[in-house]
# Entry
Amino acid sequence: MPFQTQVQLTQAPAVAGDFASANPRHSVLSVPGGFIAGTNGLTIGLFAWADTATGTILSNTGTGAPTGFVHRDLQALITTYLAEFGMTIPAGFGIGELFNGGDFWVKNAGASAVTIGQKAFANNTNGTVSFAAAGATVAGSTETKWIAMSAGAAGELIKMSNVALG
# Structure
């Protein structure tokens, strides 16, 4: 680990994939034997799709609405030589839970700022999350049932929920 080079005045509110509240959550019903990370592994804090053949293999790529969201539950491994952190669950490893309901922290992968109430869009190539108005078209992405619950700039952490305000 390299020598510390900076100190932040404020602690980060969370890490992508963390729970954003203690409100009720809902897990995707697992198949017998549970879910398994696909050949490229599974990145935490992103959307995931189950394979259509068995419903067992999860990956951060897919078509249509994602099966669920990958919560951070300390299940990733640091496999890159001399890396300081890792957010990838290696290929073939079991996935404890995949969520299709609840409140989570996500990184805004979009190019623009997010406002409360915008819909979350899942990138079909890598599972990243961007936000836009309901019914908008985001290239290469699918609109989800999730909505932004906090505002923030591109690249910042945003609270996301599938329960509407009010």
